[in-house]
């Protein structure tokens, strides 16, 4: 299961990967546009218009800021995939972890839409983040070993 | 203009983000049941608060109008009560009429206090009519011009009000004793009368200015001066003349008739 509003304890959200693996120098406006369209696409299948889209648009907008903050001293190469920025996966893990956590937190905020459930929101965010992050890490490991 | 375009273009991702986020949240609150409910609850809370504040402000600015209406209503109700109950001095016929007025200048610190109301002959207000504040007598009209009338205050040592001890029947004349604006003295009640502090003093109706049984005050002390065969009864007034604002002018429609009878008696 990729996500959804039905599960009370945990969603598995790996679709933000769409934005994470875009080339580093993709124009920020294009990333935001992809975020909106991608989020809407997910929303169509989960019958939750705007919930995923609003979270993914914010994540897409923040991607540029996170990339700037995590830029290596040598800078990024042109058209570099984030998966290739460093020889090992640790840079990629920290980059995806920041964005994924923000995405899941915002998704849960919009999904619950009430701060009365703040404890539920936090628990669900942490559980969802742990499981989704494992899968996104697994993807990176597979990509590096079998060169997808 | 070019600078504006440059600015928009340089921050295109930010503006796109704002636009898409607004669209997405619009979708969220319009097409998802639970979020829609939360949103509507919150927004109607906010609008209800604003509307309520607006209403309070409106009320505040309308206070004068409301007061005027209440005053008219009071006059109407008083007329009804007095004409229906046994309060009328001429037992059978309803004989009192009421007009609204507002006190426009007032005085309580002299010995011959008067005040002015904003109704005069143009509104059927004539000398000799009584003034009520609520149901409490507050004075008698002395002079009337076209639009204003001068009233002898209850706090004027020349004004005698014919009064009676409620439920005991003894009557006397009530006159102010300066300087306390909350206290008058009831004279001429016979010394054998068993008047006690706490008894209520009401109008007697004998003067044909006020109906009978209009409350005046409460007996606070009873003194019998040496060598006198009548009490001097201190009365705490109900009416607060220092705060007089909206009043009713009370007209006894049989006044002239009654007065002419009295004149005939004296002849």
Describe this structure in words.
The complex is a heterodimer of chains A (148) and B (267). With 148 residues, chain A is mostly helical. Chain A has one domain. Chain A is 64% helix and 0% strand. Chain A is built from five helices and no strands. In chain A, helix 2 (28-46) packs antiparallel against helix 3 (51-69), helix 3 (51-69) packs antiparallel against helix 4 (90-112) and helix 4 (90-112) runs antiparallel to helix 5 (118-146). The longest helix of chain A has 29 residues, at 118-146. The radius of gyration of chain A is 15 Å and the shape is globular. Chain B is an alpha+beta fold and 267 residues long. Chain B has three domains: 2-61, no CATH class; 92-158 and 241-266, Thrombin, subunit H, CATH 2.40.10.340; 161-237, Rod shape-determining protein MreC, domain 2 (Thrombin, subunit H, Beta Barrel). Chain B has helices spanning 2-10, 12-31, 33-61, 63-84, 255-266, and strands spanning 96-105, 112-117, 130-133, 136-144, 149-156, 161-165, 171-176, 183-190, 200-203, 215-223, 230-237, 246-252. In chain B, the strands form two sheets. A six-stranded antiparallel beta barrel of chain B has the order 1-2-5-4-3-12. A six-stranded antiparallel β-barrel of chain B has the order 6-7-8-11-10-9. In chain B, helix 2 crosses helix 3 (33-61). Chain A binds chain B through residues 27-29, 31-33, 35-36, 39-40, 43, 48-51, 53-54, 57-58, 60-61, 64, 110, 113-114, and chain B through 12-14, 16-17, 20-21, 23-32, 34-35, 38-39.
């Amino acid at each position: 299961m990729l996500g959804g509003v039905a599960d009370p304890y945990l969603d598995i959200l790996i679709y933000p990967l769409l934005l994470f693996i875009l080339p580093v120098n993709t124009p920020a406006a294009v990333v935001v546009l992809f975020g909106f369209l991608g989020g809407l696409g997910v929303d169509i299948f989960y019958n939750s218009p705007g919930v995923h889209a609003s979270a993914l648009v914010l994540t897409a907008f923040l991607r540029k800021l996170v990339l700037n903050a995590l830029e290596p001293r040598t800078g990024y190469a042109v058209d570099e995939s984030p998966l290739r920025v460093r020889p090992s996966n640790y840079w990629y893990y920290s980059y995806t972890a920041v964005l994924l956590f923000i995405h899941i937190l915002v998704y849960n905020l919009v999904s619950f839409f009430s701060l009365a459930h703040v404890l539920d929101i936090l628990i669900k965010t942490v559980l969802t983040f742990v499981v989704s992050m494992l899968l996104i890490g697994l993807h990176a490991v597979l990509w590096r070993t079998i060169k997808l | 203009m070019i600078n504006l375009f440059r600015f928009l273009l340089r921050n295109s991702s930010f503006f796109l983000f704002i636009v898409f986020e607004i669209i997405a949240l619009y979708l969220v609150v319009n097409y998802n049941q639970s979020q829609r409910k939360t949103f509507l609850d919150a927004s109607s809370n906010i609008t209800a608060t604003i509307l309520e504040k607006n209403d309070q402000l409106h009320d505040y600015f309308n206070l004068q109008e409301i007061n005027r209406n209440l005053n008219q209503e009071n006059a109407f109700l008083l007329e009804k009560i007095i004409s229906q109950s046994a309060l009328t001095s001429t037992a059978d016929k309803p004989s009192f009429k009421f007009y609204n007025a507002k006190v426009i200048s007032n005085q309580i610190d002299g010995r011959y206090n008067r005040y002015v109301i904003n109704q005069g002959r143009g509104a059927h207000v004539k000398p000799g009519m009584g003034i009520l504040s609520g149901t409490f007598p507050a004075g008698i009209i002395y002079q009337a011009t076209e639009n204003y009338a001068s009233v002898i205050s209850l706090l004027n040592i020349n004004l005698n009000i014919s009064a009676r001890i409620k439920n005991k029947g003894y009557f006397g004349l009530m006159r102010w004793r300066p300087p306390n604006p909350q206290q008058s003295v009831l004279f001429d009640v016979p010394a054998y009368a068993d008047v006690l502090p706490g008894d209520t003093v009401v109008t007697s109706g004998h003067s044909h200015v006020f109906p009978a049984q209009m409350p005046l005050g409460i007996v606070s002390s009873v003194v019998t001066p040496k060598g006198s065969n009548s009490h001097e009864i201190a009365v705490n007034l109900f009416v607060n003349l220092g705060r007089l604002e909206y009043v009713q002018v009370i007209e006894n429609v049989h006044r002239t008739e009654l007065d002419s009878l009295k004149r005939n008696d004296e002849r």
